[in-house]
Amino acid sequence: MKKIKILFFSFFIVFLVFSCDTDIDDADVNFIMLDLNSNEDLTFTNPAFTLNLYGVNDTITNATEVLLASQNYEVEELPSQIRMEIPEDPYAPIPDLADNNNARFYLEIEWDSDNNGQLCQGDIDLNYSIQNVELININRRDPQEVMLTTVPETVPCE
Questions:
Q1: How far is CA 95 from CA 31, 67, 69, 103, in A?
Q2: Helix %, strand %, coil % of the chain (to 5)
Q3: 3-state DSSP call for residue 102?
Q4: Which of 32, 92, 126, 158 is spaced 20 to 30 A from 70 at the CA atom?
């Protein structure tokens, strides 16, 4: 009888240990995973940047975009993967949105990579030459690729 109690207690402890999964927190937090990458060899002095997620109603011409999330990151090298938390209901703040299918989400990055205090030539930005690089699917949990590039010399520092 004593062996049965010990065996039962052991199974109970094992059950508790395996039921405490670290991914449980993910169920309570909305997030997107982003793979930061580049087709060019980017060098940067400052690893800190801010990533902003905006939402907009695609059915309204000149609609005002809404800042849904803004988070600071540090990346030492590319490629890198980051996790961005998003609001529980990212559709709610978008004005006049009658159908969630009409929402569009996109990113903006602020990365003063040369650490001169200005966002201008030589810094890092999204690579807008790649179609739809800024569009984000907020319902995906698998990583979405975000291509980065150097801000061209046509954007002078003032």
A1: 22, 12, 16, 10
A2: 15, 35, 50
A3: helix
A4: 158
CA dihedral (25, 108, 43, 47) positive or negative: negative
- Indicate whether this model's pTM tops 0.85: no
Strand pairing partners for 72? Answer: 50
Report phi then psi at 112, rounded to 5. -80, 75
Q: Give the number of residues written for the chain.
A: 158
Domains of the chain and CATH, by start: 23-150 (2.60.40.2990)
Here the tokens at position 12 are 């109970």
Which tens digits make up the pLDDT trace of 24-60?
344 555 999 999 999 888 888 899 999 999 999 999 9
